[in-house]
Amino acid sequence: MNKDEIKKCGDELFEAMVARTTVAPLTERYADITIEDAYYISLQMLARRVEAGEKVIGKKIGVTSKPVMDMLGVFQPDFGFLTDKMVYASGEMPISQELLQPRAEGEIAFRLKADLIGPGVTNADVLAATELVMPCFEVVDSRIKDWKIKIQDTVADNASCGLFVANESAGVDPRDIDLATCGMVVEKNGATLSTGAGAAALGSPVNCVAWLANTLGQFDIPLKAGEIILSGSLVPLEPVTAGDVMNVRVGGMGNCEVRFT
Fold first, then answer.
1. Cβ-Cβ contacts under 8 Å for 112 (sequence gap 6 or more)
2. For position 102, which CATH number holds?
3. What backbone torsions phi and psi does residue 114 show, to the nearest 5 degrees?
């Protein structure tokens, strides 16, 4: 793709987000689109968000577990940026006002205390750079019509970022728990919905953060001290609507609850 096409697609996705509309899959319109093209489209979309007053506060990796890969038909991780407009405190989240096609997923979020700059980042580097890990809900959304996405579509669309909530008060030092074996239980409206374990996300959420640091390092993008990093879902995505209440509990941590409005 040329620079004009990349800018056009980034602007189109930003404008669709603002207008709360969807667009046809980019992969259906640009047969030669690459993951690198998609990344630069996402940067144009992000630039428009920053111009509108948003601030980058972290990054995310998505499509890390087999159930999510099977659900979306995307079979490798994606990555994107988090802004201050996406984060909500544990409590209520106005998905009916903000999102188009929301799906909630239980995750473990990392709060960094030191930069991680790839390539060459190891799991030991991730643990040393992490201040705490905490239970989190990410509510993904897609500007692509009917979630008909390939990897290029979701990377271009900022990894299908929507909104998220993380309970920092339930956070712990990552060296105090085994992030590969810790269990997760997700409840919806008081009933158990799904269960998972840290190993569901590329073998461990720590692997996910290392992968993200090394992947973004190819584009000279660091993971920065103070940022929140969403490490990917351990359970299947769940469509949500206003009125739903979801709770996620992670072994060795606390819980995170959110009511959707």
1. 129, 130, 131, 223, 224, 225, 226, 227, 228, 229
2. 3.90.850.10
3. -150, 155
65 and 80 Cβ atoms separated by less than 8 Å:
no
Structural domains counted in the chain = 1
Instruction: Give the H or E element holding residue 109.
Output: strand 103-112
Q: In whole angstroms, what is the distance from residue 201 CA to residue 59 CA?
A: 16
Q: List residues bridging with 188 in a β-sheet.
A: 191, 246
Which positions ≥6 away from 99 have C-beta within 8 Å?
20, 139, 141, 162, 163
Strands 228-233 and 130-140, by their bridges, are unpaired
Owning domain of residue 37: 3-260
Q: What is the pLDDT of residues 68-126, one digit of tens each?
A: 777 777 777 888 999 999 999 878 899 999 999 999 999 999 999 999 999 999 999 99
d(CA 108, CA 80): 16
Name the pTM for this structure.
0.92
Comparing CA positions, the residue from 209, 193, 64 lying closest to residue 128 is 209
| Cβ-based burial of 55 (10 A; exposed 0-12, middle 13-18, buried ≥19) | exposed
